[in-house]
């Protein structure tokens, strides 16, 4: 079935780990991947929040390689629109500059208080999803959701076998060859 007909519903962020450049008042990076978009009240209860700094960033490690089709960001509901304005969403496999040099999926404009915005990333490949503001700012994220599909690796194996090898023997030969390739 062509991918355009698939509905990708699993939020990959819930299975990952998150870190950020600094932490303001106990608002740790993992609060942005806890599955709670935001409820009325203080952002400190529900959101990740960096300190005020030059080039604040937040990074999600998906722990595997994926094709990313959509990234969703939820802003805090009480104030501070500038803390999610101009956020660059970067996706890739590099940790150079903390992952902030990876290819860009999109950039937020003004995200209204308490609202959620989504960006189509067209199947960008990556393990890391970064949020990065290239300026002096705080960075606050109440929820980050990432939707995509696993990147499958195909290993081609050439096995020389006699014509009279049965299926079980052939399977054992292939598995031994794959184990050898993985270990070396």
Automatic annotation (TrEMBL):
Superkingdom assignment: Eukaryota
Keywords: Calcium, Disulfide bond, Metal-binding
Span of domain Fucolectin tachylectin-4 pentraxin-1: 9-155
Cited SMART domains: FTP (SM00607)
GO MF entry, a single one: metal ion binding
Keyword Chaperone: no
Protein name: Fucolectin-like
Gene: LOC109066686
């Amino acid at each position: 079935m062509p991918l355009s007909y698939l509905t990708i519903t699993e939020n990959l962020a819930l299975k990952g780990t998150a870190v950020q450049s600094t932490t303001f008042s106990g608002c740790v990076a993992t609060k942005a991947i806890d599955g709670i978009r935001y409820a009325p009240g203080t952002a400190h209860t529900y959101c990740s929040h960096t300190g005020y700094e030059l080039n604040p960033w937040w990074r999600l490690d998906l722990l595997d390689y994926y094709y990313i089709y959509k990234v969703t960001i939820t802003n805090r509901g009480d104030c501070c629109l500038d803390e999610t304005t101009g956020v660059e969403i970067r996706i890739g496999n590099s940790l150079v500059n903390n992952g902030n040099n990876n290819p860009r999926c999109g950039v937020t404009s003004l995200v209204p208080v308490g609202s959620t915005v989504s960006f189509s990333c067209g199947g960008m490949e990556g393990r890391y999803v970064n949020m990065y503001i290239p300026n002096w700012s705080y960075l606050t994220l109440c929820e980050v959701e990432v939707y995509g599909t696993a990147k499958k690796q195909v290993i081609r194996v050439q096995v020389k076998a006699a014509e009279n090898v049965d299926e079980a023997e052939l399977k054992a030969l292939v598995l031994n060859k794959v184990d050898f390739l993985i270990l070396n």
